[in-house]
Amino acid sequence: MPNAIEISHLSKQYGKVVAVEDLSLRVPSGCFFGFLGPNGAGKSTTIGCLTGLLEPTRGEVRLLGEAFNSDCTALKRRIGVMPENLGLFEALYAHEFLAFQARMYGLDEPTTRRRVNELLQALELTGQAKKPLAEFSAGMRKRVAFAAAVIHTPEILFLDEPFESIDPAGVAMMKQWLRHLVSEGRTVFITTHVLETVERLCDRVAIIKSPGKLIWEGDISAFACDQPISVNCQNFRTLEELFLGLSGERYAGTLAWL
Amino acid sequence: MRIRFLVCLLGLRYRLLWAQARSRAGRVALVIVGVMLVCLLTAVLALGGLGAAVAAVRLGKGELIAGVMLSTFFMFALFGALILGAGINPAFSDTALRRYPLSSFERFGARHVVGLLEPLWIFVLALDLGLALGFAALGVSSWWVALTAALLLFSTNYLVARVLWGVVEHIMATRNGPLLLMVLVTLLFQLPGLLAPALARNRALLGNARLGLWLLPPFTAARVLAGAPAFVTIASLLLLIGWFAGLAAALALLERQPLPSRTVTGAEAHWDSSYDGVAAAFGPVLAPLGGKILRYYVRSPQLRLNYPTTAPLMVFVAITFARGRPDPLAGFLTILALISVVGFLSMGIMTMNVFGFDGAGFRRYFLLPAPPGLVLRAVALVPLLLGAPLILLSIGLWLAFWRGHFDTRMAVMLLSSGFGGMFLFQGLGLWTSLLAPRVMEFKVKFCAKQPFASAALMMGAMLVMFGLVAGLPALGSKVVLGHWWVAPLILLATLGFYLLTLRAGARVFGARRERMLSMIERGY
After folding, report:
1. Chain B residues touching A127 at Cβ < 8 A
2. How high is the mean pLDDT in each 10-residue block of chain B (524 residues)?
3. Does residue B266 sit within a domain?
4. Is residue B166 within 8 Å of residue B251, measured between CB atoms?
5. Is B335 found in the same domain as B225?
6. Total domains, chain B
7. The pTM is what?
8. Smallest Cα–Cα separation from B503: which of B457, B434, B415?
9. ipTM of the shown complex
10. In a mutagenesis test of the A interface, which of B366, B507, B519 is the best target, namely the one with the most A β-carbons within 10 Å?
11. Residue B98 gets which letter from DSSP?
């Protein structure tokens, strides 16, 4: 089975600013993949290049074994995306937006209505039918964006910080759905800052630092053993230690006036 | 009120304005506006001030001329604020200011002091001060009295604009708000025509109307500037203070009233939507996008105001403008000119910057399994769908009142003018949407500030309309009808331009994707 995602020497530049530099990565099919990095490392830019939102400056992206770029509408039908800023059409109602998504991805009318109703019920968004998305809370908007990403049962799901702002019950339900998707052989590519979630859900993890340079990639099961992971002559016992140690992230000491 | 907070907010306001200049388009706009403002201010202070005052005093009609000029400035400010949206949308909302340690009075004061220092109001202040100081320089009134009257008039002008804007906001927030506003606007336009005969017949009524006019702020200030006796000057200044206090209180009361919420909670999803029914006419591929864009157009608060008022207003203007003209077909020539913009002006606010209203949703177009050309086609088809019936309705409404000669040539010319103008300006609107998009707040009901390119296109359309209104009668109906075949040729040319725009625009849309994302999501 081909890899779900193959990134070869991906670079993205905005004028003189390099956002991602020479990134290469392979994500096997049926994998729950965590893509980590500090703020501004290039995670969202990478997802943008993988989903057709942005055009890479150099390099190649392959999804499901086929070359991918922003014009590949056939491949786009097979992926689902929950972008960083959610990308909602805020003047629409929730069911209108989800129905729009479903129809754009080729679902017929009866299937569209059934799935929209089921999603709204499952995500506790029923009873908000006459409220435009602009008036939803941050958590509700995220639920709608998540529903829009999964409504057409994609083979690869890209989620950019999906759990932030959602209440614990909502997060638990989303995790359950994502695990189910992966168990069905689909691939989930997720970025998040919540490392505990990554440790619990993901099979493999990649860590990048600015500008989009891969600094570590490996199985999450490596942390399950008693043996520390050795990288660059440093030993790390937990994902948090590894992340902070390799990404150069340091937390500031307490401020005197605080 | 703590002045240091006000100074900080003022500084922030102008830093935000300067920050817009970080983009190339922003710098161009700021330089043009800045240079224009300086030149205009200089010209206005020179001409509008001393020159007008000298002319007024020499003619012996100081008070009358000052009253007419100040009224003109007053109405100009109201037009600029309420119709063009200049200087009326607050730089800081009350909600945004609540994060700072300010009392409600300080927030109210801060918002409106910052609002007074918008470019439009600075210009109006220059107009008022120029005239007032002109009179003072001639010795007709004292410097302090003239300055006080000008400042009070200016403040009152601002408050009137704000109160009217607030009233319109409240009307628009109600269920039948757009319809009510349409009726009020139509009545307002009808009022001079209805009142004039009654005033001409009834001298007492005319006298009362004159008195009413004399109590209004512009004429009250004019009395002060023209050097009225001390008692009258004091009474006039007190009247201006009364206007100021009353309007300030009305504004405070209006801002305290929450806008009625139209959200219905607990409602179930309604599936048999007329939007999707109409969009189905676009075909199965375009239908979902068409339905989405149609919803945006129909739900736009500004469109809901403009769209229903366009046809009756155009017809009313056409009939009124042609009254008393020697050419029996003057009315036809006027509607021929006006119909050229009907299919565009009513929806221009969206058509010229269609992606700006998507905001964060804009990026979703590139995530969807749809080529850019498909998105652009859907974006283009919806305003055509809405514009066409408006053109036909305008023609039908005008024919219902038209008593003159009408033949096939005139019908062909009207249709060609309407549809030709629609294709031309909507095509240009697609280009401004692609090349100069800017994020716009969807729920602003009135007077949204438009991007520079959109405003320029809107002005261009108005200039074409006014040019035709002036030019066609100058040619005469005989010449115009004799060359009736030019109109369908123009229609064909504009249709060609529109189709070329769709083709080229699809390529541009794909190629400029990231630039547009930056302009819409980051503002530069």
Report:
1. 265-268
2. 77 75 66 69 65 76 85 85 69 77 83 79 84 87 92 94 87 75 70 68 74 88 90 93 94 82 60 87 92 94 84 85 82 93 89 92 95 94 95 93 91 96 95 92 68 81 85 88 94 97 94 92 76
3. no
4. yes
5. no
6. 2
7. 0.83
8. B434
9. 0.93
10. B366
11. T
